[in-house]
Amino acid sequence: MLRLRLLPLAAFVAVLAACSGGGSTNPTISGTVVPPKPTPTPPLGATSQQVASSPIAHVIVVTMENRTFDNLFSVSGLVGGAPYPGADATPVGIGPDGKTPVAFQPVSLADIRDPGHAYTELISEWNNGKMNGFANDNIYPLGATAPVKIPNFPNAFVPPNESILYHQLAYQYALADRMFSSRLVASFPGHQFLIAGQSGASDNPPTLIWGCDSPQGAVAPGFGPPETETTGGFPCYDYQTLGDLLDSAGISWKYYSGPPGTIDGNIDAYGAIQHIRFGGDFAKVSTPLTNINSDLQNCTLPSVSYINAPAFASDHSATLSAGGPGWVADLYLQLIQTKGALPPACQYLNNTAMIVTWDDSGGWADHVLPPKDATGASYGMRVPLLVISAYAHSGYTPANPTGYLPYVSHVQHDYGSIIRFIEKNFGITPGALGQRDASADDLSDMFAFGAGNPVPPISGLLLQDFKRHADSARRTTLSVRAGTPVDDDK
Q1: Which of 15, 77, 302, 430 is most buried, with most CB under 10 Å away?
Q2: pTM
Q3: CATH of the domain at 299
Q4: Interior angle at CA 13, CA 8 and CA 15, nearest 5
Q5: What does residue 157 show for φ and ψ, rounded to 5 degrees?
Q6: In this structure, is residue 40 part of a structural domain?
Q7: What is the pLDDT of residue 328?
Q8: Helix or strand holding residue 174 (H, E)
Q9: Where are the alpha helices (DSSP H) in 215-367?
């Protein structure tokens, strides 16, 4: 999604240089370039490990924005600019002619250009499964009144000095390279899939304010037969959500967001659910976003938390900010700071699973063909998925810390997998919503509740890098907020 576009500001804040093996900021992709062929997704496994008594007492779902797996993990500072170790990632795309291989180029998280990622644009990129429409995508420069064509622009990777914190977290914990958006959609429907396993809209409403607070007469497109769009209707729905399941089970939850009508509140998914927006449960939509900080510090974190990254630290293109990784690092550091807290239940580092994903592909190229569901509808492009927990399926083993091999899940996941994991972890019938959670896996392969755990937190000099990066993200966000927003929901 693009919540707004900003008028140009001065450039600012260089971020952490590549570490742990280094690699240049803009490595040269050399050797024979092989055309990326769409990769069929392997079928889900028939079995799923059932955890009798989970040590996970808290789940924090962190939603970033608009990045594909290849965009963030095809070039890694951990291995001198090669793809992230063990992952199916490639810094090679397909050119404007639909067949010629093209090496990815570095594009900063703070770049002023935004690839198109409306439903119809994503369908063009997907191109009936050919996965060769990225190079001809519409591009929306910051402050522009109309899109332009910049051939090959979406064939890009984030420079490793900007993505390094994500790679360090993945290396310490667990990463998935078969996590798909639930449909070929932008942010508004993406966030609906994250809380409900379904969406009443196929695209963002064409208004500044979204959801049940949208202006009278606002219409969000709907889904037609795959892959088509209908006129749709008012973007306020009344289907069941994960929040309803948690209420029925007596499990505490919060959704940390900005206030309604603000840039940080515009993608509040529960603000588009009528019985929650205008009912008592809307008190569980906690504003401002920083309330999660006090809940961590005061031992008042609910069992289930969802938090959307602030707009200017979300990884969204054309926000003039590379502060997303630092914002995630800051949240992780707050978990570390609970180590030693009393009572022990407040030591959230030991009993929390922090699940980080991205709400849509943002129009960036990816080489893996999304699977189709039982109706023939395509899932969306791959997005990264990180599981950060003392019980993550990590490559760390206390007996052999030098023989480390990072864990990369190759199991098919989507946003419904996050819901299903939460359902299973807290004793709710898996698939209870009957939507994407019913057909998804439950992330079991990304956790290990036996020998070798708990996984230790990041420490030493690397921890100091995390702190420096988090401080930079806070300064960056404050700097960008000084800009003048210009509404443009495309």
Answers
A1: 77
A2: 0.88
A3: 3.40.720.10
A4: 130
A5: -125, 150
A6: no
A7: 96
A8: strand 174-176
A9: 242-249, 274-277, 291-297, 324-336, 348-351
